[in-house]
Amino acid sequence: MAAQVNDSPTRDRRAQRRQATYDEMMGIARGALQEGRPLSLRAIAADMGMTAPALYRYVDSHAALQEALVNSIYADVIAEMENQVARWPEERASERFFSSIAAFREWALSKPEEFRLVFGQPQSHWDPDAEEESVPRAIQFLLHFARCLKALLDQGKISAPAEQSLPAAAPMMIRSHLGPWLDTQAVPDLPADVWWSALRDWVMLCGVIRMEVDGLVPSEVVADAAIFQEALRCCALRAGADDAATRVGLSEAFGRS
After folding, report:
1. 3-state DSSP: the chain helix, strand, coil percent, rounded to 5?
2. What CATH number is attached to the domain comprising 229?
3. What is the pTM of this model?
4. Gene3D superfamilies, per this entry (predicted)?
5. 84 and 102 in contact (C-beta within 8 Å)?
């Protein structure tokens, strides 16, 4: 009887090499995006000393390259936002929230081409026919925002809006945006009014950031984050937060971000 050969180490090395090649490809693609160079398989392959067909094992088209690049960017930005949350103790929910949102804004301002790639084209929020079980990237930032609001709500630092103040279409819009994940453990268990606050304020804050990125507000107020901090403060006050504590939290968060 022939001895069995354990080929696991060989498979592991191949997987590691494949991952290393993929990571290098993503790094070069992000560098090209930030520098305004062509974002094409041919150009990336040339930078890697490879041929474009060799990269087809990783991405089979320009559209697939963009999709992979956006996924890579999403993962890194969400990870940095979570890192900012972890810098503060749990009882400092305001600073956790403000710091993570400040990190998102800093990414947008420091890497505007990445921001425009991620947010500059329409994206479907969820596909009812998709087989993928993970939460789609299009709602992951909103989920982070909502988790922060839940922590603030649990600590009594904000209050839920009165249900009668919600637009009549709010439940439908929340359901449309979150899709089937609204009824799973993948998203926080929040009342509809808090979900509405999260969606409304996230859209408003992204609008401010987009105007900053595109140079539509004075550079002086972008540099010191004056308008963005005021927008955050308005969101907090509308949710019932204490103004003095909010100002302190903003100062702490933006001073450390």
Report:
1. 70, 0, 30
2. 1.10.357.10
3. 0.83
4. Tetracycline Repressor, domain 2
5. yes
Distance CA 5, CA 60 (A): 34
Q: What is the pLDDT of residues 134-181, one digit of tens each?
A: 566 768 888 898 889 889 999 999 887 766 677 888 888 887 777 777
> Using an 8 Å Cβ cutoff, are 225 and 101 in contact?
no
Q: Count up the domains in the chain and report the number.
A: 2
Q: Which residue matches tokens 């609008």?
A: 207
User: Which amino acid appears at position 153 of this protein?
Assistant: L
Polymer length of the chain: 257
Helix (H) or strand (E) holding 82: helix 62-86
Q: Do residues 196 and 174 make contact, with C-beta atoms less than 8 angstroms apart?
A: yes
- Expressed as residue numbers, the domain containing 54 is 7-59
Task: Please check whether residue 145 is in contact with residue 203, taking contact to mean a CB–CB distance below 8 angstroms.
Answer: no
For residue range 70-113, list pLDDT tens digits in order: 988 988 999 999 999 999 999 999 999 999 999 999 999 999 99
